[in-house]
Amino acid sequence: MLFKSLAQGVSKVSGKVPLRLILVIPFVLQIFAAVGLVGYLSYRNSKRAVNDVATQLLEEVNARVEQNLESYLTIPHVVNQINATAINLGQLNLQDIPQLERYFWRQLQIFNTLTFTGLGLENKDNLGAERLDDGTLILRVSTKATNHIFHSYSTNEFGERCSAVLGVSPMSDCIKKRQEILDSIKFDPRTRPWYRTAVKAGRSTWSEIYPNTAGITAYLGASMPFYDKQDQLQGVLLTNINLSQICKFLRSLKVGKTGQVFIIERSGMLVATSTGEKPFRTTNKDYGAERVKATDSSNAFTKATAQYLSTKLNQKQPIQRLQQWEFAVDGKRKFVQIQPFQDEFGLDWLIVVVVPEADFIEQIHVHTRTTIALCLVALLLATEVGIVTSRWVVRPIVQLKDAAIALEKGQFDQIVNQERSDELGVLVKAFNNMARQLQESFATLEAKNTELQHLDQLKNEFLANTSQELRTPLNGMISIAESLIDGVAGQLPSKANANLAIIASSGKRLGNLVNDLLDFSKLKHKH
After folding, report:
1. Boundary-marking domain end, from 194, 210, 245
2. Which of 20, 33, 214, 397 has its CA 20 to 30 A from that of 176?
3. CB-facing half-sphere around the CA of 478: CA atoms within 13 A
4. Distance, CA of 76 to CA of 198 (rounded, Å)
5. Are residues 262 and 176 in the same domain?
6. SS in 3 state form for 6-69?
7. In total, how many domains does the chain have?
8. Is residue 265 part of a domain?
9. Residues 513, 490 within the same domain
10. pLDDT the model gives residue 523
11. Are residues 216 and 109 in the same domain?
């Protein structure tokens, strides 16, 4: 009952308000309410959105790192398998050192992500091709001919040595280049971790991360033992990737403004990081470098994150799936995500993505202010659009009203000019058709009326003329009949007199009818 009364009240009030205001005011009020609600919710949910945005960013960065690692780390094992197949098929002769050097050199040209590919044999021979930091390809050789001293050779465009080292005669058809000798070290591949690990596993595996012989970078080696037909160990194939390339990829990732991503082993040793920090330190021990723990990182952010994660990694239950946590450093909240990365060859790393809350708070605040500003602009534009729309809608209705009033006054030449195809356009078209039909109908009626008036005039004239034409002979006929009855021509038989009396009576009656027609014609003519 209350709703019905309210509806009736609104109906009475709205019936007195101009249509233009009825169209504009509710529209503007709805837009204003919507804009206000959006602004309020945007401000209210800004902090709540930080967690969602951070989670999305962490997962996206983690997915990119995981995808890149899978692609990057698959190649070394594929190359080892190709090389093992070539040896088993006899395509590679282990006694033909120049052939092996050219073969490995070409592989580095094909697989540009590799830094070394080669082999170590049970007879202590070791050789392969290496890519330097500037992209130059060199040959690394330690054989009986060099007294198992590690030599490095520049190459020509065919992968051949360019010059002799330690008494080896130069090849006459080589293009001379600058000889590079990085070091002269007694080298036995069988003592290296990558060799021992592969022999122990008896299959393709990853070596431990180790520094190169110059101590300027660190390698991760994919090693694979190969055997002769009697299953006797012949040696181990080795294909290396440079951890600096993984670091380079991590540096290319944008993790918020100050966030970072790094990879560690479960032992906490640093593998690669997006900060540019090397995962090793140069020393004077052994080959000149040693691994670095993430908790000993020179980067304060990396160090703080690693120290927090160390409490998680030391738990009895190892991390086997993606985990996300929040922690604070100096009262500032950080978001961290850790994802295990494992493969079939024994790799077991942890991908860590960390980003400060401050990176998102400022961005969220900027977005909130932008949202409010855009809402206000939208309100103004919507109001203007509402006004223009109401005018566009009301204009043909007003024109129809004016034309209808004119039709009521008999002005049938009313045409409303509107080139629209919507509902109002259909209404205007129907009105114009109705007005045109009314105009045509009244014109037709006018023409018919004029024609009928003319025919009536002709009829009256015909009756008048006919009456005049009939009266004279009728009067003569009546006079003759009466004269004959009176005996002007003598006494007539009674039957003839009776007939003459009938003629005279009929003539008088006919004359009265003619007089009546004449009188009616005169009456119509006067009116």
Report:
1. 245
2. 214
3. 15
4. 14
5. no
6. HHHHHHHHHHHCCHHHHHHHHHHHHHHHHHHHHHHHHHHCHHHHHHHHHHHHHHHHHHHHHHHH
7. 3
8. yes
9. yes
10. 59
11. yes
Structural domain harbouring 143: 92-245
- How do residues 315-373 score in pLDDT, each as one tens digit? 667 788 888 898 888 888 899 999 999 999 999 999 999 999 888 777 677 777 787 78
Task: Determine the residue type at 150.
Answer: F
Domain assignment of residue 412, yes or no: no
Q: What are phi and psi of 338, to 5 degrees?
A: -130, 135
SS3 string, 188-206, reads CHHHCHHHHHHHHHCCCEE
Are 214 and 98 in the same domain?
yes
- Whether residue 68 lies inside any domain: the answer is no
**Do 427 and 309 reside in the same domain of the chain?**
no
| Residue 147 φ then ψ, to 5° | 60, 30
pLDDT at 414: 67
Please classify residue 359 by burial: count the beta carbons closer than 10 Å to its beta carbon, then call 0-12 exposed, 13-18 middle and 19+ buried: buried
So what's the pLDDT on residue 368? Answer: 73
CATH of the domain at 292: 3.30.450.20
Tokens of 208: 């431990």
In angstroms, how far is the first alpha carbon of the chain from the final one?
Answer: 66
DSSP code of 112? T
In this structure, is residue 503 part of a structural domain? Answer: yes
Residue the block writes with tokens 């120049």: 98
Write out the H or E segment, with its range, that includes residue 353: strand 348-356
Q: Do the beta carbons of residue 162 and residue 175 sit within 8 Å?
A: yes
Which of 148, 85, 140 has the alpha carbon at shortest distance from 122? Answer: 148
Q: Among 356, 387, 409, where does a domain finish?
A: 356
Same domain, 206 and 279: no
Question: Is beta strand 332-342 parallel, antiparallel or unpaired with respect to 323-329?
Answer: antiparallel
Which pLDDT belongs to residue 526?
Answer: 54
If asked whether residues 114 and 152 sit together in one domain, one would say yes
Contact predicate 383/28, CB 8 Å: yes
Can you give the pLDDT at residue 240?
94
Closest CA to 245 of 136, 49, 113: 113
Stretches where the chain sits below pLDDT 50 are 164-183
257, 262, 266, 270: CA torsion to nearest 10: -130
Angle at alpha carbon of residue 273, lines to 270 and 278, rounded to 5°: 70
DSSP letter at 284 equals S
Question: Residue 166's pLDDT is what?
Answer: 38
Phi, psi of 285 (to 5 degrees): -90, 145
Say what the pLDDT of residue 116 is.
Answer: 93
Q: Which of 332, 280, 329, 287 is nearest to 305 (CA)?
A: 329
Phi, then psi, of 261 in degrees rounded to 5: -135, 135
Cα separation, 263 vs 249, in Å, equals 12
Contact 243, 209 (CB under 8 A): yes
Distance CA 185, CA 205 (A): 26
Same domain, yes or no, for 232 and 263?
Answer: no
Residue type for position 221: G
Partner residues linked to 326 by β-bridges? 335
Element (DSSP H or E) covering residue 171: none
Q: What integer pLDDT is reported at residue 97 of this predicted model?
A: 93
Token pair in block for residue 243: 């951890």
- What CATH number corresponds to the domain at position 464? 1.10.287.130
